[in-house]
Amino acid sequence: MKKDITRLIMLDTETTGIGIAQGNRILEIGAVEVINREITGSSYQQYINPERESEPGALEVHGITTEFLSDKPLFATIVDDFIKYVQGAELVIHNAPFDVGFINHEFALCGKNIKIQDICTITDSLDYARNKHPGARNNLDALCRRYGVINTHRTLHGALLDSQILAEVYLMMTGGQTKLNLEASNDSNSETSLSLDLSQLPPLKVVKATAEELQLHQQWLDKISKNSEVDFFYATPPDEV
Fold this sequence. Notes:
Blueprint: E1 7-15, E2 26-35, E3 38-47, H1 56-62, H2 66-69, H3 75-86, E4 90-93, H4 96-109, H5 116-119, E5 121-124, H6 125-132, H7 140-147, H8 159-173, E6 179-180, H9 211-228
Parallel strand pairs: 1-4, 3-6, 4-5
Antiparallel strand pairs: 1-2, 2-3
Helix pairs in contact: 7-8
């Protein structure tokens, strides 16, 4: 019987601002592939020329300047490659309505008569976190602290960086990661992975107390017992275990 494969894509976008109605556009898309709860090493990243300036508040968040984006491709140029990468996968997005709205807006602007939810399943990891931790802060930084995911390198937001962090957080939040592929390539079929084989660990070293140490310990217990007039019951001496 063929093994059922679950392909998740952790996805994030950076935009010129928060409002589509104000003409804001996507300027970066980042995605990280997870198959059967394994981060495969396959990823997708694309900077995009949004054909407009970023709003000051958005620029403070992502730091991606108009000058940097001036020679990057338009969304219409990269849309087919993006669709090819994500099609058929389950997209895990933190605050999914925001990113889904922008992606669908870009599809419409370049003449694609589809919506991202037509070709992918959408899972909102923020929704999941709120149900799991009601009343708590559930942004990525808060979840990193809660699950012990290191994100000290995240001084500014970036779509690929946030997708990588989300992959670790989501796997921890939903039960833990099984394996991590360390080969930094875009080949999702790679078999290189890291797993822990406890049988390869050296035996634990047992350090027993010396006869002199046992005698001193017994003298100390006798002194306590005499002072408190309490009877003590002692366990089997270590060298008899």
